[in-house]
Design goal:
- 41% of the residues lie in helices and 20% in strands.
- It contains eight helices and seven strands, in the order αααββββαβαααβαβ.
- The chain folds into two domains: 2-56, no CATH class; 71-205, 2-Layer Sandwich (Nucleotidyltransferase, domain 5).
- The strands form two sheets. Strands 4-3-2-5-6 form a five-stranded mixed sheet. It has a two-stranded antiparallel sheet with strand order 1-7.
Length: 227
């Protein structure tokens, strides 16, 4: 079963990384058990396979006439890992242009966190690094950016304040300096960090399992629909 499991999950990861961002979170969760899968893991992977079979004609559709500028969303699920991973959070981001996702990632953080705010700080660092690459790409391809900088959205008010409130450093001095890269980029005017309500946070689909209604809403937000 181990070999079959690895083959199936590997195929799901390939899809998730190239054309089906809606599979990213579930495929990455399954990938955490490649070394010692159990029957429950195999059943979960098969269930994802059934979903793929039912949506085989789905893909990312671009061409929205209203979304003519690139922007990104970043989110984190505090201590959202499975058994043995409960002190680590899952981060996710997506960048959208023309009504569809052009870059995305679901990622289990390597270190433990103490709060939702700290999880969001680590996730935002991941998103900021990607936003700098996407900003350069947009400049090379002459793709417009709102206000001349990359717009990055998050749904955590504490993290939003930390982006430009240096008085909060006493409460966050235990967090590694590298995770505050966003502050410098905001100060330089290269990115702008904005708040968005949780119900509209598309990147939530990369951090944890969702109910059917939210999943379908965020899937459509990524531009994934029947071709």
């Amino acid at each position: 079963m181990k070999t079959k499991y690895q083959t199936l999950v590997g195929s799901l990861l390939y899809l998730a990384n190239h054309t089906r961002p809606d599979l990213a979170a579930s495929a990455n969760i399954c990938a955490r058990f490649m070394g010692c899968p159990t029957k429950s893991h195999w059943d979960a992977a098969l269930q994802i396979g059934r979903y793929v079979a039912a949506t085989v004609d789905y893909g990312i559709v671009y061409g929205s006439e209203t979304e003519t500028e690139m922007y990104g969303m970043v989110d984190a699920n505090f201590v959202g890992g499975g058994k043995g991973e409960r002190k680590r959070s899952t981060s996710g981001y997506c960048f959208l242009y023309g009504g569809g996702a052009v870059s995305w990632r679901s990622f289990l953080e390597k270190t433990a966190v103490h709060s939702t705010c700290e999880a969001e700080v680590m996730a935002s660092a991941l998103g900021v690094n990607e936003s700098m690459w996407q900003r350069k790409l947009c400049k090379d391809l002459e793709i417009p950016l709102a206000g001349g900088c990359m717009q990055l959205y998050g749904d955590n008010q504490a993290q939003l304040r930390l982006m430009d409130d240096r008085q909060a450093e006493d409460q966050t001095k235990h967090i590694a300096t590298r995770y505050f890269i966003g502050r410098d980029r905001v100060a330089l005017g290269e990115i702008k960090y904005n708040y968005i309500e949780t119900g509209k946070m598309i990147a939530d689909i990369f951090t944890k399992p969702l109910g059917k209604l939210l999943f379908e809403r965020f899937r459509a937000g990524l531009g994934v629909m029947r071709l």
